[in-house]
């Protein structure tokens, strides 16, 4: 018998990167997996990978910047499987403009929409079912930026991920005695497609120093497979090798600045 036999998991941002790796690991441990993301084709590829290994998966496109769609995603997962035991809030978005001096309202709203408001709306939509069942695991992939905000990750991303972390802490405090486990994963640099949106895109040498998506997925799997009596509240992860990021920070603060900026 596999560790997660009989469990139902919903994973957001599952078309690539950490979400994809997590969905594959959860399915390999026996969970039936619902996956979500913005793009249909990558989701279908993940479903096909899971089904090739005799697992069960379904997919739905969703834009988590829109709270109504986040709630509809939760309702769809409940209707499809009759409940959700594990929620992985993994979908994330960073900004191209990272300085608080230059970032515009639209980009700010989009980053907070995916990383904070979308997490709130989707999580809230599933909590009644989890409370009724007397158990549930909610894992949110935040970022080291929640602990060490600055130009490297951008002001909007740091604020959004700090908000997501605070949300999981509040959830833990309020509902732990109803069987709900809330965990925040706080990774530093991970080699995923989100890096391609940075002002200075890391080259192959820089990426070789970073964690891989599977590393974070393994931490998520650990959280989900702990006995119900135990909750891991937070995991902070970072690459063993600390690379020089001074050029990255300089490029981040310069992005979007007017020509005469000082």
The number of strands is 9
Name the helicity range. Answer: 40-55%
- Helix-strand makeup class: alpha/beta
Number of helices: 8
Q: Which percent band covers the strand fraction?
A: 15-25%
What is the element string, with H for helices and E for strands?
EHEHEHEHEHEEHEHEH
Strand order of the largest sheet: 3-2-1-4-5-6-9
Q: Could you report the average pLDDT, rounded to the nearest whole number?
A: 95
The rounded distance between the terminal residues' Cα atoms is 62 Å
Low-confidence segments, ≥5 residues, pLDDT <50? none
- Choose one word for the global shape: globular
The biggest sheet amounts to: 7 strands, parallel
Radius of gyration: 18 Å
Description:
The protein has a seven-stranded parallel sheet with strand order 3-2-1-4-5-6-9, with helices on both faces. The longest helix is centred in the middle third of the chain and has 29 residues. Strand 1, helix 1 and strand 2 form a beta-alpha-beta unit. The chain is built from eight helices and nine strands. Helix 1 packs parallel to helix 2 and helix 3 packs parallel to helix 4. With 262 residues, the chain is α/β, with parallel strands linked by helices. The chain starts with 7 loop residues before the first strand and ends in an 8-residue tail after the last helix.
From the structure above, extract its key features.
262 residues; alpha/beta; seven-stranded parallel sheet; 9 strands; 16% strand; globular
Write a brief caption for the model.
By secondary structure, this protein is an alpha/beta fold.
């Amino acid at each position: 018998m596999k560790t997660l036999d009989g469990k139902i998991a919903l994973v957001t941002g599952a078309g690539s990167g950490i979400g994809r790796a997590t969905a594959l690991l959860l399915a390999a441990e026996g969970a039936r997996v619902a996956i979500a993301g913005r793009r249909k084709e990558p989701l279908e590829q993940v479903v096909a990978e899971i089904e090739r290994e005799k697992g069960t998966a379904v997919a739905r496109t969703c834009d988590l910047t829109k709270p109504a769609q986040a709630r509809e995603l939760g309702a769809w997962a409940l209707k499809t499987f009759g409940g959700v035991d594990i929620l992985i809030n993994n979908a994330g978005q960073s900004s191209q403009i990272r300085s608080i001096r230059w970032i515009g309202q639209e980009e700010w709203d989009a980053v907070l929409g995916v990383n904070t408001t979308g997490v709130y709306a989707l999580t809230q939509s599933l909590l009644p079912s989890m409370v009724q069942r007397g158990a549930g695991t909610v894992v949110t992939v935040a970022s080291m930026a929640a602990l060490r905000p600055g130009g490297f990750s951008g002001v909007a991303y740091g604020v959004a991920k700090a908000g997501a972390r605070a949300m999981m802490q509040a959830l833990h405090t309020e509902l732990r005695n109803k069987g709900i486990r809330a965990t925040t994963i706080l990774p530093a640099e991970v080699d995923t497609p989100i890096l391609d949106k940075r002002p200075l895109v890391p080259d192959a040498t820089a990426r070789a120093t970073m964690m891989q998506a599977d590393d974070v997925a393994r931490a998520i799997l650990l959280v989900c497979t702990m006995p119900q009596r135990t909750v891991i509240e937070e995991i902070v992860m970072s690459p063993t090798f600390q690379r020089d990021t001074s050029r990255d920070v300089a490029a981040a603060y310069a992005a979007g600045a007017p020509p005469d900026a000082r």
